Amino acid sequence: MIACKLRWGLVPTAASLPLAQLFFLLLWFAMGAFPVWAQTGGNLSGVVTDRTGAPVPEVEVTIRNVDTGATRTIATDGGGHYQASGLPPGRFEIRTAKRGLGDETRTGISLAAGQDATVDIRMQPGTPDACASGHEFLTTDCTLTWHGITVYGAYDVGVGWVSHGLPENGANYEGASLVNRNGYQHRFLVAPNNLQQTGFGIRGREEFAPGWSVVFNASTGINPNSGQLANASATQTINNGLPRSSYSYAIDGARAGQPFNDEYYGGISSTLFGTLTFGRQRALGTDAMLQYDPAGGSYAFSYIGYNGTMAGGGDTEDTRWDDAMKYRLTIGPAHFGAMYKFADGNAGCYSASSTWTAANCTPESAHNNAYGFDVGGDVGKKFSIDAVFQHYNQAISVLNPLLGPQSPAAPYQSTTNSINTNQITGANLIAPTDTVYGIVTDNNAIMFAAKYTLDPVRLFGGFEWIRQTNPSNPLGVGALDQGSVYLSGVEDNNLDSPKIVKIWWTGVKYAVDRKTDITFAWYEQLQDTFRVPSTCSTAAGFRASCSGSLSFGSLYVDHHFTPRFDGFAGLAYSFVTGGLAIAIPHGPGVPYLHNSNYAPVIGVRFSF
Known about the structure:
By secondary structure, the chain is mainly β. It is built from five helices and 31 strands. The chain has helices at 17-33, 134-139, 232-237, 284-292, 303-306; strands at 5-6, 9-10, 42-49, 60-65, 71-75, 81-87, 90-98, 101-111, 116-118, 121-122, 144-146, 149-165, 185-192, 199-209, 212-221, 263-270, 274-282, 320-331, 334-341, 349-350, 362-363, 370-379, 383-397, 436-454, 457-469, 487-491, 499-511, 516-527, 548-560, 565-578, 596-607. A hairpin with a 2-residue loop joins strand 24 (436-454) and strand 25. The longest helix is centred in the first third of the chain and has 17 residues, at 17-33.
């Protein structure tokens, strides 16, 4: 066929008309099916972060045109960024979704012709999908959940070297990173619980009415080397009576062999009115430490994680409170917490005399109640801050195993600044076997902590001021400590004047990529002189009541091979001076065997 050529083009013949009609029909359908995206228009972009302000990669971002119903789905990149271009004028909503985080929706977004808009989204923790297979359990972060009940836990172990350390024992659940007053030798060791406490737990949330749920949690920690329950008190009692050079690691802490030595509580949660729980629970200071510590409470790389002085408001035993009621409420970007501990346990028998017997002491009632408050929130998209106050009556600190035959010739546990030291031998309430010796104080603590996210960097910092005084209600010999261990010796009048302790920390976490982090952290503890009159001089012999300092720094890298399995390697350094370098309770002027420590460690962690 021949087509006639006109001035403006070709005149189609009868045979070519069906092809042209088909072409224009397909074009018309294409433009009709995608009217929203077929034209150049505005842009929507933003950053998706988690509750801590860290960018979240691989989030499914769905942008919906409210006027037409057309949608476009994209994924965030490694820095949590998303961008959609070529959007027509109109109204839009954005929905984000990712396993393990709650879905978020942003509405009321309007775009004019050619307009650009930025919508940043912060995703809150959600309930991860339950595991459907063994392969999914190993390769994703799905949960072991059945009918609202979840089993969870972790296994963390490594190998390391310590410049001035001690042998491990089956009850110890901390590593060797912190300088130890009794550390006397360098050694290689199997290091337990480096990034996280090994253990397991079970928690649940079951809705019984719209917006109302029953919640519970029961969790415990173990020593991965021995399989024993974490038990700080046992590390003391197994060293009682031994020469100083024969000690294994002896620590103080809230985990003391209880069946559930971490938490054991139940309560009610409301989406509108908050959550109220009762039982054994982490203190508000412990919650804040885990959130604002650059090392996340790591035993291997964090001083405030290894030593709970800060988290417990003055004593590491108080990082967890028994018989405690806890309330949490979140309103928009702000949150509030309150906690109260009821008095519990046996307070023993007390006499103001330094020489007394069971026949002339006065039975005491427990006054170890405590309370605390937390106020905080998010400022903008990247900054978070919290302020925590805690008060604890009759707080107990166990500083060292009971002395053996090598101790000074005295019928009691020698300390550095004792005014009223009750005997632990002779005609007393209990024998020293399998018991501990405690110093008792009333504590007040105020903490401020903050963090800031500047992709891919997160900055952390905090400060706590602690004031300790002699208890207004004394404890007696025979009182119960953590894990129902008896106190065979008690000091209720250890302080000549209030003891002031200041702790501050800072650090940075750098995300090399979505699987690898590098963390640097630095911690300082400062202690004021509290002995009156002060005897802090070289001639007089320094005491533990003199001013002093403790410095702790760490650097480590953590790489996730899978969402559940990661490997880590790093170094911790610590150093003590002044009163904090006196080896309580081996007598005034007796220093640490070594006042510094280097502890490199490498290990793995599997969590579920």
